[in-house]
Design a protein that fits this description.
heterodimer; A: 268 residues; alpha/beta; Rossmann fold; 7-stranded mixed β-sheet; two-stranded antiparallel ribbon; 10 strands; B: 80 residues; mainly beta; Alpha-Beta Plaits; 2 helices; 4 strands; 12% helix; 38% strand
């Protein structure tokens, strides 16, 4: 599989004296459960789960956070995120989150949705929740394909990109153009914060985490809907190795889905 | 000059061998093992080298299975 794999690698022996709590730099967030994730090797969902829970951990909001799980690859998000979770019907996470947030306005509510969930079947729920200016965070994972159902074309699939339902590449003449849902939502006055991030390099992971932290802080101030879009990979359905897929994110996805803050509230 | 010595602990049974940590490591102190874990993946291991505990591997790891420690060791001043 990989050129780096050889049987005679000199394995390092761990120096126990360094492994003490005062020297700890990084460990798994407490709010992430110990269950092994079902995601494919190299999938960005794991990284997105991890940074979301790191933010919850750092802000100390485990008992005050309610998450809404979607339908898609991340349908089992409630197995891994150790906060109160509610499963929603396909695409309806924003509608469920509206209900949760209105009944419990002091809680921190987030939805975690993929592109098939948020940008295809749930477009109406998402746009109307944004238009009403609901105070919750939408984490939008954009990998340009339907992952769970084995790689059909999604609204976010790039022009010319291959999928099982666009085997000759997405032809914009007949299949339409990719939907930039983040740019669309940024136009609405009820939306406070829209940002697009990626998790394909450590630097981008740090930025994405900062964006999520900002979103939680804006939610506390009740400024409106916050959308954090994460452009990520799908190694299995793009038919690529994980490193190759991250290179594709860098070379093809990011030039189309430009990273950065699209809308930011003015905080006094 | 102070020197940082890093130590990396990897939960090999949860590793899926995606190679992202190996690619992210600036000091090239990680590699995929020739052996496999119970799931059949070539898991990531720490190899001999100067790990400085930058935690890039742990930050990129999608499975959150890498724990990083860093100790700053102050070396004695060398008088020329």
């Amino acid at each position: 599989m990989n050129q780096n794999t050889t049987a005679d690698i000199q394995e390092h022996t761990v120096d126990e004296s360094i492994c003490s709590s005062e020297n700890l730099v990084y460990t798994k967030p407490q709010t992430l459960t110990d269950d092994p994730m079902h995601y494919c090797p190299g999938c960005g969902h794991g990284t997105a789960h991890k940074i979301l829970m790191e933010v919850v951990d750092e802000l100390g909001l485990q008992s005050q956070t309610i998450g809404i799980a979607p339908v898609g690859c991340s349908v089992f998000a409630y197995h891994y995120l150790n906060v109160d979770m509610q499963e929603a019907a396909h695409g309806r996470a924003c509608a469920v989150a509206t209900g949760v947030k209105r009944m419990m306005p002091d809680k921190y509510v987030f939805t975690y949705q993929g592109d098939g969930d948020l940008a295809a079947i749930g477009t109406a729920e998402t746009i109307h929740a944004a238009n009403r200016g609901e105070n919750f965070l939408v984490v939008f994972i954009n990998n340009g394909i339907y992952g769970m159902t084995s790689g059909q074309m999604a609204p976010t699939t790039l022009p010319g990109m291959f999928s099982t339902t666009s085997p000759y590449g997405r032809d914009v003449e007949t299949m339409g153009y990719p939907l930039k849902i983040a740019d669309l939502l940024a136009l609405l006055p009820g939306v406070a914060y829209v940002t697009r991030q990626a998790v394909h390099t450590p630097a981008n992971v740090r930025k994405a985490k900062k964006a999520m932290k900002n979103a939680f802080e804006y939610q506390k101030k009740k400024l409106g809907l916050c959308l954090v879009e994460i452009v990520t990979n799908c190694p299995s359905n793009w038919k690529m190795e994980p490193l190759e897929s991250n290179q594709f994110v860098n070379d093809k996805m990011i030039p189309f889905y430009q990273l950065g803050d699209i809308k930011k509230p003015e905080v006094k | 000059m102070a020197k940082a010595i890093g130590e990396v602990i990897i939960d090999i049974e949860k590793c899926k061998g995606c190679d992202l940590c190996v690619d992210a490591c600036p000091t090239e102190t990680l590699a995929l093992s020739g052996k496999i874990n119970h799931k059949g993946y070539h898991y990531a291991i720490r190899i001999e080298g100067d790990c400085n505990g930058c935690a890039a591997c742990a930050i990129i790891c999608p499975e959150a299975i890498i724990t990083v420690y860093r100790k700053i060791v102050k070396s004695e001043k060398v008088v020329a």
